Amino acid sequence: MEDIIRHLSESLFFQKLGREELFALAQCGSRFTAPERTEIIRRGEEGDALYLVLEGAVKVTIPEGGSAEREEEFVVARLGQGSIFGELSLLDSQPRSATVVTLAETTLFMIRRQDFHRLLLQHEALLAWLLAALSRRVRESTIARHQEDIERRLAEARREVERHRAITSMVTGVAHELNTPLGVCVTAASMISEWLSLAESGQVGTDSEWYGDIVDATTLLIDNINRCSSLVRTFTEIAALQRGEAKSVADIRELIAASISEFAEVQRHGLTLINLRFESDVVNWRGCRNQLSRVLIQLLTNIDAHAYGARCGDDAKAEIWVQDHRLRGNPALRIEIRDFGAGIPPAVLPHVYDAFYTTARGRGHKGLGLTIAYNAVTGPLEGAISLESTPGQGTTARLLIPVA
């Protein structure tokens, strides 16, 4: 009895009570020991008791995303000796808001609601204490909620600032990318115009020294117009992400295989092998199929361009591994696209999704491929993407895509 009174007096919830009230509480409750991983209370069931941890520890969990599934549980708190839980059940029988499970063999002291109500009739001081204790809990909860609201608003403000920075960066990048080829086009067009004027007046012919310059100018004009056209097509892809795509049902294995075939028709350097490991039970996947295909092709293109460079050989290979997974408590596919090439330097990795960020601009790359992939995965596909890389050992892109 004395050890229970001591634990009650040391608890923040009961510490304002006098010796008489603590003794009465110790008498109306009961002690019990639960093995490790014992579910003490379950989310959604009717609450009927308060618990005090005498020895051991428990964890308080709720399903991530509010789902009834528990594979992705979120741990709200871990409570040790002297902690209480379920105190609101002293006043009502509303459903429990969380599940509590023991982390080790745990000894608990339990006070049932009906026993506590009888005790209130005998000890008036308990009623005043209860109102004060619950008011303190409400005040603490209100302050915490207010702080969370402030932090949420600050986070939203920071995201808005980042959005404007991204727009500014995008506009600056577009201007930079288009400025050079358009400048070349203007110069080349001026040369051609001048030569045509001279040709019309009979001052020059095909045997003139101007002729070779005009051929070069025409080549530059065509190449740079194509460069601008390619950039515009890339922006058309980005715009397509904003317009959205209706979800449809597709055979996921066939979709991935078709994406690999489409990539093989346009690859520049030549991956010698793309191995598909399909270990998922999912057959009919429902989602934005064109977006998923675009992402897979883009990631393979990134491997083709950066992992092995201009090298071709038996080591120029990639692997696509498909498994069942969960995302936000719901069924999902985990698709890993892995290469075994040069890898990404640690200083570069944080910037791979940034628009116009590239380490290969000299080879004609614009730095928009992974930006498109990221926007497609986190936007229309409603999933998540991450990259892991070790220099000299390769890179793994991991997609988590909802099944439906």
Radius of gyration from the alpha-carbon trace, in angstroms: 33 Å
- Uncertain runs with pLDDT below 50, 5 residues or more? 66-71
Fourth CATH level, the homologous superfamily of the largest domain: Histidine kinase-like ATPase, C-terminal domain
Shape: elongated
In the CATH scheme, the class of the largest domain would be Alpha Beta
Q: Distance N terminus to C terminus?
A: 56 Å
Q: Largest beta sheet, briefly?
A: 5 strands, mixed
Mean pLDDT over the residues: 79
Number of strands: 15
Secondary-structure content class: alpha+beta
Beta strand %: 15-25%
Give the name of the CATH architecture of the largest domain. Answer: 2-Layer Sandwich
The number of helices is 8
Provide the number of structural domains: 3
Please render the helix and strand layout as text.
Elements: H1 2-10, H2 19-28, E1 30-34, E2 39-41, E3 49-55, E4 58-63, E5 73-79, E6 84-85, E7 99-102, E8 106-112, H3 113-122, H4 124-200, H5 210-243, E9 248-251, H6 252-266, E10 273-279, E11 284-287, H7 289-307, E12 317-327, E13 330-339, H8 369-378, E14 384-390, E15 394-402
Parallel strand pairs: 10-12
Antiparallel strand pairs: 1-8, 2-7, 3-6, 3-8, 4-5, 4-7, 9-11, 12-13, 13-15, 14-15
Helix pairs in contact: 1-2, 3-4, 4-5, 5-8, 6-7, 7-8
Structure in a nutshell:
It is built from eight helices and 15 strands.
Description:
This protein has 404 residues and is α+β, with helices and mostly antiparallel strands. The chain has 3 domains: 2-122, Jelly Rolls; 168-243; 248-402, Heat Shock Protein 90 (2-Layer Sandwich), CATH 3.30.565.10. It is 46% helix and 23% strand. It has helices at 2-10, 19-28, 113-122, 124-200, 210-243, 252-266, 289-307, 369-378; strands spanning 30-34, 39-41, 49-55, 58-63, 73-79, 84-85, 99-102, 106-112, 248-251, 273-279, 284-287, 317-327, 330-339, 384-390, 394-402. It has a 5-stranded mixed β-sheet with strand order 10-12-13-15-14. Helix 3 (113-122) packs across helix 4 (124-200) and helix 4 (124-200) runs antiparallel to helix 5. The chain is elongated and about 120 Å long. The two termini are 56 Å apart. Residues 66-71 have low confidence and may be disordered.
